[in-house]
Amino acid sequence: MATITNSGEDIISNSLDVTQLDIADDPSNSFEDSFEIPRTVDDILNGGFTRIGLQFPDELLHYSVRVFKSLERHLGSDKKLYILADTTYNACCVDEVAAQHVDADVVVHYGHACLEPTARLPVIYVFGKRTIDVDSCVDALSTSLRQKTARETIISTDVAYAWKAQTIADRLSQAVEDNMKVILHGLPPTVAYPAANSGAPAGVKPGEELLQDHEADGSPLGTDSTQEKPTCSDQKQSCGDTCTSCDCTVQQPLSLAQRAVSSEPKKITADESTIIIYIGPPSLKLTNIVLTNRPASIIAFDPTVNSTFEATGTENRLLQRRYAQVNKAKDCDVFGLAVGTLSTASYLPLVKALRAKLQKASKKVYTVAVGKLNPAKLGNFAEIQCWCVIACAENSIVNSKEFHVPVITPFELEMALDTDRIWTGEYVLDFSQLLDPSSKYSLEAHSEGGNDQDEPIFSASTGKFIKHRKFNKDNEMDVPIAEGVDALTLRTTENALQVMNNSAAGAYLQTERSWKGLEVREGQDEPSLLESGRAGVARGYTLPDTLAASESQSKSN
Questions:
Q1: Based on the domain organization, do 51 and 181 belong to the same domain?
Q2: φ, ψ for residue 361 (rounded to 5)?
Q3: 259 and 360 fall within a common domain
């Protein structure tokens, strides 16, 4: 009882376990170089932004004041800077909600980022330059690769180590066998505009993919690294205004408009003959790479301990848990869509598509935006039997055992609703593949199984017979006539009989809730007479004559 009636002071004095990152303590980099202050200033000035939101994760918040003052010193007083902390959802996503509170026209996102395309605001990414021992990395990876037989190697990095990715790729290509091709996966962008935004600089098609995979020497994949650069006569737009002859091969540096791309890098595609190298500590990104590239062999290098480890094989147990969650979801009739992002460009179309899919399958669906997910929040919606999380790819998979009902991804929901589909182990975390009608993973590409209502259904998780409740498009339960005799009946003023079908919440209240409200005590208490009460406003109520007389009499006594 004490946990309910305490004063609540413990939540104020409770200390959070936050590990502070020391990305600015590398002696080889200055503070401004670690946080890319000069480049950030150039991007802000070139973009013409005036109100800038600086979004920091908890682990970098102790640097926020120094970064703020440094940017303010370079930009001047005509630019308004705002520090955004305590993100609405996940720190890897751009917090457009907090940015709109200060009317920002751009967000500078610091730290780790999931790189999901934003819906409204442009973003300047500053990933930080985490320390990495290039020599140890190349030696460890080359030793591991000599034990493999593969025709190509794809290098992907945590965004904090992307600044050394090209150097590592060059060194690694020299250390491996000649018949092995080393490919550097598309590097993360530094500036990104919304996927559907008319405010992008001229020459940029919003959502256009300008990132390319590169050979180890930096040349785009599929091109000859030794060929000459295009000349003026071949490609006039490749030359700057300073050209003086038609055979000039000098190109201007990429402008802000040329670097402004859709913020989602190209998906890694690999097969059995491919080795994927991931540079970074164990993370959600590594988990996603392992799940979505099962045929490939995956080697990870952890710069924090300077060692490699095999990531392949770790996905089997995770996939087993996910498959068990899908089987539990097949038994559910009431679903909740937990919106875990408000900035990802495609979250609204996905919510709409999932609601339509669930309603077509005669399921009850609620849509809830609860911020950062935790069991306590979702536990308030006890009537919901299964949750589907709509979040960025790095936060879609919830493996915590503390949730009392299954928590699945949109792809897993699609598999649960399509009872005729056999899961082959493929895994999809990309929203665009679920929304693309031409994709085999499209939400519109599969049926919801048979419609034989007399066919017995047995749970794949428990083996017991289950009977699904059917809901119509208005989220009301379809009750057969024989079962409707216990439904609530009302008579209107015209004496017309109405039958109120049970809702999901009402049915849960009647069958599952142990406490259903205040006790009625019908026939046990003597009825009281209705009397006129106080009237007026709170600062001065007016009493009826009878009530005023009784109060004055009680005071005199």
A1: no
A2: -90, 10
A3: no
Contact in structure between 364 and 475 (CB atoms under 8 Å) = yes
Max Cα distance, the chain (Å):
112
Cα–chain center distance at 467: 34
Task: Give me the CATH number covering residue 385.
Answer: 3.40.50.11860
Task: Say if 167 falls within a structural domain.
Answer: yes
Question: What is the number of domains present in the chain?
Answer: 4
Q: Is position 184 within any domain?
A: yes
> Does a structural domain hold residue 502?
yes
The DSSP string of 9-78 is: HHHHHPPP--PPP-TT--TTS-HHHHTTHHHHHHHHHHHT--EEEEE--GGGGGGHHHHHHHHHHHH-TT
Q: Could you give the CA distance from residue 369 to residue 337 in angstroms, rounded to a whole number?
A: 8
Are the C-beta atoms of residues 265 and 115 closer than 8 Å to each other? Answer: yes
Neighbours of 545 (CB within 10 A): 8
What domain range includes position 500? Answer: 481-511
Return per-residue pLDDT of the chain as tens, 557 residues.
Answer: 444 455 556 555 656 555 566 664 555 678 888 899 999 999 999 999 999 999 999 989 999 999 999 999 999 889 999 999 888 888 899 999 899 999 999 999 999 999 888 888 999 999 988 889 999 999 999 988 888 877 788 999 999 999 999 999 999 988 887 778 888 887 888 999 886 554 444 444 333 333 444 555 544 444 333 334 444 444 434 343 444 444 443 334 433 333 333 333 456 666 677 889 999 999 889 988 888 887 788 899 999 999 998 887 767 788 888 888 998 998 888 999 999 888 777 888 899 999 999 998 889 999 998 888 889 889 888 889 999 999 888 888 888 888 989 999 999 999 888 877 777 778 888 888 888 777 777 777 655 544 555 566 766 666 666 666 777 666 555 544 344 444 444 444 455 544 445 565 666 656 666 766 677 777 888 888 888 888 888 888 887 776 667 667 666 66
Torsion angle of the four alpha carbons 434, 436, 438, 441, in this order, in degrees rounded to the nearest 10: 0
Residue 345 lies in a domain: yes
**Of the residues 414, 439, 456, which one is the last residue of a structural domain?**
456
Do 49 and 179 sit in the same domain of this protein? no
Q: Are residues 506 and 443 in the same domain?
A: no
Domain boundary among 126, 159, 188: 126
Q: How far apart are CA 496 and CA 233, in angstroms?
A: 85
**What's the burial of 359, exposed, middle or buried (CB within 10 Å: 0-12/13-18/19+)?**
middle
